[in-house]
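Worked example 2:
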Amino acid sequence: MQEQLQELLDDLKQAIEAAEDGSDNRAELARLAGELERRLSDRDDEGIVDDLRGEVTRFEASHPTLANAIGRAADALSAIGL
């Protein structure tokens, strides 16, 4: 399970790096990845899927590839019971 979570986090980081340079949201995206990584490593997963789904809605128009990566992460976490 930890390996799957790490793969999801890596995918999210790649999507953030692929986002437009100079994006107004880049700092927020980096914060999101850091927060996700911290919560997973601390096993503080309460509400993490809902938080990610909120980010999908936020970024789906401006960064559809990123929103897709976040959505996949939320789906995978939900599938493993988080």
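The two ends are 11 Å apart (CA to CA). The chain has a mean pLDDT of 76.
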